[in-house]
Amino acid sequence: MNIITISREFGSGGREIGRRLADILGYTYYDREIEISIAERMNMDVDYVAHAMDQEMLMNIPLHFGRTFGDSYAMKQQVDILVEKQRFLKEIASASHCVIVGRAADVILSEFHPFKMFIYADMEHKIKRCQKYAKEEENLSPREMKKMIRKVDSRRFQYHRMFLNTDWGDKNQYHLCVNTTGVNIKSIVPILADYSSAWFRNSKPE
Amino acid sequence: MNIITISREFGSGGREIGRRLADILGYTYYDREIEISIAERMNMDVDYVAHAMDQEMLMNIPLHFGRTFGDSYAMKQQVDILVEKQRFLKEIASASHCVIVGRAADVILSEFHPFKMFIYADMEHKIKRCQKYAKEEENLSPREMKKMIRKVDSRRFQYHRMFLNTDWGDKNQYHLCVNTTGVNIKSIVPILADYSSAWFRNSKPE
Question: Which of residues 40-79 of A touch B (CB under 8 A)?
Fold first, then answer.
């Protein structure tokens, strides 16, 4: 199977690239679908699962070790969700060609030799993009936007460092790094589709 | 004019990408041509010019400040060559669409809004590539190769830090970063040509 993983800075347009790429290539697209499926399987609330998969919550785990484990049930649930996430990712990677956005799929699925992309952009561009796509009730100032973008990305970085022993965002972890600053995403996705197809034809180990 | 600059790790195939890209796009290709032209203009030996443009020689300049300037003539020549290099790069950037490999052209020509690529690869891949293309007399062991690759790239990094105040190899400095590990360069260059054309159509400021 051809697996494309898309890691991305918050606000860089990685999700849009992923969706359009899957459309063009006829691959299955996974993003929020991952939490929904896991919630169904585990008979849990999807928001709870999303929250449990959220890096911030996970990062607190080490703080609990050596304590009294007052809420060890919630912790066990979190670990169960993580285990299920890994199982689910490996299932979908075996089922069909697919594009997976985020979820550390690039690391978790490394044995499947995915084509790994990283999408990034200048801060100013990311703030503009976030403002363009923000819901009305999320009326953040550029300064608050910037703070949020930094926070999300810093969490991603720390999560990869702590749990996966990799440097999120380090170009050496990826096959292609695309700067979307000032770029018309719609116009480049067909080219990225060509690039990934060429990569699968020539570079993927058997 | 459309200017493509190619920065590259030693042994990653950046030069081959540059040459093929220029061929496909019908752009002028500049690499060693730069030293040759400067040598002609300044009526100097091309190897001397290449050596003077070499980062290692330049890096020693700060060591000389505050000394007796025993060899200030040679130092003045070096500075003259650098000035001429900047002038020459700006001339060629104004003359025709072109691909320029290295020479810090991405920074020196920033006012021309070049499409900036960075080419890199895993160390093992770079060593293999260097061994494949090495002249017979340069019979280095993989260990020596590795040392040389590190040395050249570290010089590039330090040069950019000291003289251009930029982080060479930091993905944020570039529009597209291409990992050539295990990649068939011939098969991806037409796609990179498409990508740069799309970038010039949509992203280049007027």
Answer: none
Q: Look at residue A36 and tell me whether its pLDDT is greater than 60.
A: yes
* ipTM summary value: 0.90
Contact (CB<8Å) A179/B171: yes
* Contact between A199 and B178 using a beta-carbon 8 Å cutoff: no
Q: Options 3.90.550.10, 3.90.380.10, 3.40.50.2000, 3.40.50.300; which CATH number does B3-34+96-202 get? A: 3.40.50.300
Mean pLDDT of chain A: 88
Q: Tally DSSP H helices, then E strands, for chain B.
A: 10, 5
How do A115-120 and B3-8 pair as beta strands? unpaired
Locus of tokens 């360069």? B185
* pLDDT value, residue A184: 93
Place of tokens 């199977």: A1
Checking DSSP bridges between strand B28-30 and strand B98-101, what pairing results, if any?
parallel
Domain boundaries, chain B: 3-34+96-202
- A173 in contact with chain B, both atoms CB, cutoff 8 A: no
Of B120, B194, B202, the CB nearest to A171: B120
Q: A3-202: which CATH architecture? A: 3-Layer(aba) Sandwich (3.40)
Nearest-by-Cβ selection for B202 from A187, A198, A205: A187
A148 inside 8 A of chain B by CB? no
Residues A191, B187: C-beta atoms closer than 8 Å: no
Contact yes or no for A202 and B179 at CB 8 A: no
DSSP SS3 for A146: helix
CA distance A193 to A171: 19
DSSP three-state, residue A6: strand
Contact map slice: A 105-124 vs B, CB within 8 A = 118, 120, 122
pLDDT along chain B (206 residues), means of 10: 96 97 97 92 89 65 52 76 91 96 94 97 94 79 91 89 89 97 95 97 73
